């Protein structure tokens, strides 16, 4: 943490000095008819904005915010907290970072932020399970409105047309990825990178099939249908029991008949 803050402050100081140097050089070249850095430092026909060529006050404000935003994302990734968040929570975190009022990178801010995140990590994880649970459709008898059963049915996971099936983008796809991540965490195993999560593997499976077949994975099997729905059958009942325990914790009495 100390190295991150020190390096960040050193980089910002050097960037400010660089902006001042470019401004002085532009003044010199302009005085002899050579125009400014905006003209001679850009590739021909590819001129675009560059904060290094703005006035120091305006440039440093934006550059500092952009740098801090990237550092916060890196710290969050390394902390492991993103793995505990569902898609909704991760989106909220990203939206907060995209604002203009992000906290400055400092030891005090890093400590307070991650102390707060650490103290709430159990709640964050459990909220992810609850959000997956609440996102289920109760239009099917297989979906018990009080708990996760051995099988759940979801709508709009796939799309079908004359060219065949494809996996839909959007909240349902995110929900399936969230479900897999929760099962990995409950099982005490490392979470796969998002480039190889269940939605990526399912999409590859769908693209290779001319007719719908069952997709088998470590934690569940998925059978999808032309109307867009999918039957997800769980393979690890003990993990489903643990998810239901979390639901019961948040909704006391709801699993009384389990």
Automatic annotation (TrEMBL):
Residues 64-252 form the DUF4942 domain. It comes from the Bacteria. InterPro entries: DUF4942. This is DUF4942 domain-containing protein. It comes from Rahnella inusitata.
């Amino acid at each position: 943490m100390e190295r991150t803050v020190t390096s960040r402050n050193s980089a910002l100081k050097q960037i400010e000095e660089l902006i001042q140097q470019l401004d002085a050089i532009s003044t010199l070249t302009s005085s002899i008819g050579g125009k400014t850095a905006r003209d001679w430092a850009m590739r021909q026909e590819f001129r675009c904005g560059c904060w290094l060529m703005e006035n120091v006050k305006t440039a440093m404000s934006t550059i500092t915010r952009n740098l801090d935003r990237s550092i916060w994302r890196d710290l969050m990734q390394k902390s492991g907290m993103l793995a505990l968040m569902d898609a909704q929570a991760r989106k909220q975190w990203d939206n907060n970072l995209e604002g203009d009022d992000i906290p400055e990178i400092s030891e005090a801010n890093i400590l307070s932020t991650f102390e707060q995140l650490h103290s709430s990590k159990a709640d964050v994880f459990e909220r992810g399970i609850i959000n997956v649970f609440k996102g289920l459709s109760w239009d099917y008898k297989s979906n018990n409105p009080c708990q996760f059963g051995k099988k759940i049915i979801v709508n709009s996971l796939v799309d079908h047309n004359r060219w065949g099936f494809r996996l839909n983008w959007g909240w349902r796809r995110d929900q399936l990825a969230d479900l897999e991540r929760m099962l990995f965490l409950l099982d005490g195993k490392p979470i796969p990178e998002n480039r190889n999560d269940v939605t990526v593997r399912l999409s590859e499976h769908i693209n290779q099939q001319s007719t719908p077949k069952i997709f088998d994975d470590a934690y569940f099997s998925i059978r999808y249908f032309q109307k867009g729905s999918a039957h997800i059958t769980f393979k690890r009942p003990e993990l489903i029991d643990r998810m239901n325990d979390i639901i019961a914790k948040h909704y006391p009495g709801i699993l009384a008949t389990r």
